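chain and backbone:
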Amino acid sequence: MRNIKIIFNTLRSLSFDKIMKLLRLTLPHPLFSIMGFYATLKSFTLAQKHFPKTHSNNGVGNAFRHSLWTCLIMMYCCKISSPKKALAYCKEMTDLHEELFPNEPLETKMDLHNNQVGMDYFMQLLPGVHRQFFETSFFVKDLITKTKTAKILKSLDDDFKDELVYLT
């Protein structure tokens, strides 16, 4: 319930222009939007459970949350559409999040990088598992393992490929 409050308070803070951008994403894709919203709640809950101290700042828990978030969006959207459409929507949704709620440039790079790590990870798993049979547990354990080798992002020029990154 607390997570829903946070999300609604955040939405209330948006300007008219930003609300219009959000509507341009959600109205053409109502089912994807519902799935994305559910993935957002689920990723917050799981990140809070596994990384209570770092999921809401720029720590390793935040890296976990962003990569899990994109895996969950992909998983839920792939259950109702093709992986190609799910990937396009996931990328658009997560990029829009960074635009609507801007951070410092290094924080934005971190979030976008970790989002991409999650999308890439899901796409790597896809050939081995029918998309209807994916479950949240497929991602949580492996992404927690990835946090153990996460790298500290120090510069906008840093490139850590498929490694999770964090700032503090």
